[in-house]
Amino acid sequence: MSPRIKGNFSGQGRLTLEGTTLYKAPMTQDPKIYQQVQEAAVWCDLQQIEDVYSLKGSGFLDFLNSYNSQDIKSLPIPGVALGSFLTQKGKLVSPAVVVKETEEILLLLPQGYGDKVAHNLAVYLDFSEVSFTEQNQRFFHLVILGPRASLGPLENLPPPELKNSMHRIGDGASSIWAFSTDRWGIPAWEVLGAADQRDAFLQSLPSNLPQADESLLELLRIEAGLPKMGVDMGENNLLAEVGLDERATSFNKGCYLGQETTARVKSQGRVQRHLVKIQLSEAPKGTLPLSITLAGNEVGTLSSWTHSPKWNHPIGLALIKNQALASPQDLKIETESQSLSLQTLSSGGSSHS
Questions:
Q1: Which residues make Cβ contacts (< 8 Å) with residue 19, sequence separation at least 6?
Q2: What is the pLDDT of residue 189?
Q3: Nearest to 124, CA basis, from 53, 70, 57
Q4: Is 266 exposed, middle or buried (0-12, 13-18, 19+ CB in 10 A)?
Q5: pLDDT tens-digit readout, 77-128
Q6: Mind spelling out the 3-state secondary structure of 242-279?
Q7: pTM, 2 dp
Q8: Cβ of 17: how many Cβ atoms within 10 Å?
Q9: Pairing of strands 50-58, 105-110
Q10: Which pLDDT score, from 0 to 100, does residue 346 have?
């Protein structure tokens, strides 16, 4: 079994959703494991972060294609893509990694969001022959990150640089799927396989491959400007506000739930606010989310932050009104104990479940 290396993390600010802690700040990352993921590879267990659901039954492909923003029918078998479930008004219910197989679709959802998707689709499921069920006990789910992530059972695969490149290892119920992903802003192989194959898979990895925990994924995604469901994006967001219109949407497929709003936003070319990556003058002390102001008026919200080794500075993700982004040098975060200045590092955002 690989050794476990944990970062040194501390934090007081946290955001909760229905009693589940989704985000803690601040975080201080162990420089050794950060260097390891930048230069070689580490692995991280995703089973406490995401849930696995199965969609199967008569007409399951047509069903999902009608209720997901991605073009499911055009995916190869096996195939993988990032998609989104939306409300009728085009608001986000949940992002989803879609894994297409011959007899079913596997959906990788942020932990706890399977029930929200089921609720949103309840009426349509009732009038179909399709089932939507949790499958967490059936699978193991992990990711190997870094430029040297092609290790062990993956050693014959190319470096994971091509997004959504997918490979099946083995056959039948013992199959293991490996697909390249950029969900954490760094080359990675995401691995999904039969639960009874987990130990054998881990034992086949190099003995010196360290295991990281979720806090490394948090650091990497913030550095890459990638929002997290329930933290940086939620059920009040349009896809274009958080970058999912570019990463998780097909504009060439037919109708789907929420398509009218998504297409109208694209044709008009605007939303009123965008998720941006920002640099902070110092580490914030307040509990997230924190209001961002311009001339005393609230214009945005800081939703997550970390001290970045890459930028050597505190950075974060914030949803800010477009008009305020014209004067980024005047944006402030004011609390009882601090007055922080900030500057934008990039525009737009891209999805992490």
A1: none
A2: 96
A3: 57
A4: middle
A5: 999 999 999 999 999 999 999 999 999 999 999 999 999 999 999 999 999 9
A6: CCHHHHCCCCCCCCCCCHHHHHHHHHHCCCCEEEEEEE
A7: 0.89
A8: 14
A9: antiparallel
A10: 60
